[in-house]
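Dear colleague,

Following up on yesterday's call, I've attached the two folding results inline so they're easy to grep. Please treat them as preliminary; we haven't cross-checked anything against experimental data yet. The first protein's sequence and structure tokens come first.
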Amino acid sequence: MKVVGLFAGIGGFEVGLAGAGHATILACECWAPAVAVLEARLPGVDNHPDVRTLPDLPADTELVCAGFPCQDLSQAGKTTGIEGARSGLVGEVFRLLDRALAAGRPVPRVLLENVPFMLQLEGGRAIERLVRAFEERGYRWAYRIVNTLGWLPQRRERVFLLAAREEDPGDVLLGDEAVPLARP
């Protein structure tokens, strides 16, 4: 697949997907230290510095990955919710999806990542907003909480929300084919 990484950070999604044979065609990250890491990890991949000024997704985008800012959704943050100044930037993902749809080239798949507290904060308003936005655009969706402790010596839970226009995202996200590494 041809991948666009919004809120790309240091390229976790993009590097992992490259290892599976997929190609990142555009990254979008504003934080200078992360951009430096992206340039080293993804040489030759253009980085757009601000999702708010990205006019369009490339026409051949097959997957958008977006680990959008968690500061307003995290227990450690301000808990202002999905409409907060930082976490509310997820709206830019939908703006770009709308532009692609209006141009007659809908993006087939979108993968969002964030903190699991978003499922509880304000009675789950964040996840409700996200799934409603996907459904309004013709996507099916599934989400799952993943704990990195199965693979790394660190407990870090994250919500992964996969939306797809054609296939059932539950078959991908909820399939248990991956086996965690045994810890010593």
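Below is the second protein, in the same order (sequence, then structure):
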Amino acid sequence: MMVFTPTQSFLMIYDKMNNDKFSKPSSLQENAIDFKAAGNEPSWSLEIDFDHKMHFKSLNHPQELITPVPNPELLQDQLIERYHAVTESGELKVAITKKVCTDPMSGEQFPSKVSVLVKLTADDEFTEYTGCGGRLLDHRLHNIWALEEMEGEQVTADDFGNEIPVLEMYTAEGRVVGQDGCNRLSGKIYGNKAHLTFGLLMSTRMACPKMERSNQFVKLINQHKYDYHFEPRQLVLSQNGKAVLKFKNVD
């Protein structure tokens, strides 16, 4: 029996939902989409490329709505992300709640509940849509990764005076925790099947004997975007075709 991950199942439902009325190619390339959400009665879908655009379409609205991605409003200790965008074509309000969401038709569970309010220019009021969604980070990133190489140099625990930096990524939740060889780290991760972006990282403030390497590591990942690929038991983060960070799987 073939078993699908929640993300794979979600994509199957999403693709199935996009029938002939949605056959027009998306203005967002598939490998640039970071987040997908969908719902039923009527069928609707939302694609978000957090670097560029939100793209909403529904059977209720023959006109698709594409907007820039505004800075999110974070509520309830970051359990809810809200995005509010206004364009000449209309207005889009998106709320993403980190709460398990069950699709009523398929019974599948997804990591987020999604509410969308849409008002096109010709509309008198907002129409609300509810459904489920999830980030599209590669599920293989969901692992524990220990730093092996930094800017072309092999690293050891002695370089950091304490221990090798380690990152643990939770792709379904879009977050990362770990340590830089001295201090604990935590923050958001964004991305898709090709790119990985680290958000603003929070850190403890312990002083350690060799902070230079730890500071270098944090500087390289904090609010930085990378291409990534996998090698046997390795994760490689690159920029402009050059490997910047290499990690090994230690889970």
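For the second protein, one point worth flagging: Confidence is low (pLDDT under 50) at residues 1-31.

Best wishes,
A.L.
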